[in-house]
Design brief:
The protein is of the alpha+beta class and 128 residues long. The chain has two helices and seven strands; from the N terminus they run H-E-E-E-E-E-E-E-H. 14% of the residues are buried.
Length: 128
């Protein structure tokens, strides 16, 4: 009977420790709303008004004015450079980027430059 009591105390302490570890160390923070200010590095022949930023998960967009676009997104979402929704016949989809408060997005229209960026990313990802 004494061993059962000791076992109960040990299991109770382990349960309390597991709860504390979950609450303070392992539990992730809920996503926060972030005001994103994006700067456009335009390497295309098109005017900056051709581009916008998009929150990938929601589809919300904001167009560039004077090289800057602003949008609000959750910290667990992603943004990307896209074509301004006003231009229905043109499509540009940039790389997905994590939501941060300040970011510079580059518009590549030259296929070789864009491919070089993709290959660079692949080389960094698959380094031996």
């Amino acid at each position: 009977m004494k061993q059962a009591g000791i076992l109960f105390v040990i299991l109770s302490l382990f349960g309390i420790f597991a709860f504390i570890a979950w609450e303070f160390a392992l539990k992730t923070e809920p996503p926060k709303m972030v005001f994103v200010t994006a700067k456009l590095d335009n390497k295309c022949e098109f005017h900056e008004s051709t581009f916008a930023i998009e929150v990938y998960e929601t589809g919300a967009t904001s167009v560039f004015k004077d090289g800057i676009a602003s949008i609000t997104a959750r910290s667990d979402q992603r943004i990307r450079l896209v074509t301004n929704p006003a231009f229905k016949n043109v499509q540009y989809d940039g790389d997905l980027e994590p939501v941060v408060s300040s970011i510079t997005l580059t518009a590549y229209c030259d296929v070789s430059e864009r491919m070089m960026n993709i290959f660079k990313s692949m080389n960094e990802t698959f380094k031996p």
